[in-house]
Amino acid sequence: MNEVLDPKQVKQNQHFTEPPKRYTEASLIKEMEKDGIGRPSTYAMIIDTIQERGYVTLDRASESTRTKVFRPTEQGVLTTEKLDEFFKSIINVDYTAKMESELDQIADGKVEEVPTLKDFYNKFQPLLDQAYENMEKLELEKVGEKCPECGGELVYRNGRYGKFISCANFPKCRYTRQLEKPDVEKPEPTGKFCPDCGGELLKRKSRYGTYFLGCSNFPKCHYMENLEGERIVSKQDRLKAKEDKKKAADKGTKKTAAKKTVKKTAKKTVKKTVKKTAKKPAVKKPAVKKTAAKKSAAKKEA
């Protein structure tokens, strides 16, 4: 009972709580399938819609990977918060899955659509009225410039294609303009030269965030290499090599077909010559009967 136990080994491990992994397109579709939301024919449309409306962005998870994950935007977070606050009873996974099932039953003719729509409307309309009355109206962020058309304040707005600038007097004034894009990182000279054309190699940043060296004579020259000096075969070069290989294969096929045609023609010519040679010449039979008839006629006359 009073025995003292000495530990053989003590390890100190520190572990921090990690957030759930962000959804990729594949994992989001898998989650929707699990919850019974959507159908195979609507998954692509759902993913396109949440991006077009500016609720999420699809970006690389990190600089070291090409896997893209969804990240919520300010508009997406705000929309989710307001829907949870005012429409929680109908904007949830269980209700959406139930609605999907009811729509399938309507399509199969098992349930009538009018009573189903009435039931939904009777739940939705009071929630909508409450949201109109109690939802906080956010003041639009001002740009700090005057509208060049009417002199009103310019404000930031969110559209289906992202954030843009418009006049605060909309819809009376319909002036709009796109936000200026951030400065793109300019190529840096390296002092190296292209082995294909002799142009200078420039350090460039790819759309995936990685750096490489590319010829300054692009697009005439497509030479590229990584920072370690290893050549990168461009997509255009791969396509060109594929086309050249196909052309070479087609030429080989045509040559083979031409040889076969020559052989067939030669065989036919030989056969015709043999047949003509094999035919026997026509032998004229002597006119014995005619000569005998002439002699007998001459005797009679004599």
CA radius of gyration is 43 Å
SSE order in H/E notation? Answer: HHEEHHHEEEEEEEEEHH
Q: Considering DSSP H and I runs of 4 or more, what fraction of the residues is helical? A: 40-55%
Report how far the terminal alpha carbons are from each other: 170 Å
**Mean pLDDT reading:** 82
Overall 3D geometry? extended
What ranges have pLDDT less than 50 throughout 5 or more consecutive residues?
A: none
Descriptive overview:
By secondary structure, this protein is an alpha+beta fold. Among the domains are: 25-134, Topoisomerase I, domain 2, CATH 1.10.460; 142-178, no CATH class; 188-232, no CATH class. It contains 7 helices and 11 strands. The strands form 3 sheets. The protein has a 5-stranded antiparallel β-sheet, with no helix packed on it. The protein is extended, with a radius of gyration of 43 Å.
Task: Describe the protein's topology.
Layout: H1 25-35, H2 43-52, E1 56-60, E2 68-72, H3 74-86, H4 93-107, H5 113-134, E3 142-146, E4 153-159, E5 162-167, E6 176-178, E7 188-193, E8 200-205, E9 211-215, E10 224-225, E11 231-232, H6 235-278, H7 288-301
Antiparallel strand pairs: 1-2, 3-4, 4-5, 5-6, 7-8, 8-9, 9-10, 10-11
Keywords:
Topoisomerase I, domain 2; alpha+beta; 43% helix; four-stranded antiparallel sheet; 302 residues; five-stranded antiparallel sheet; 11 strands; single chain
Can you summarize this structure?
The chain has 302 residues and is of the alpha+beta class. The protein is 43% helix and 17% strand.
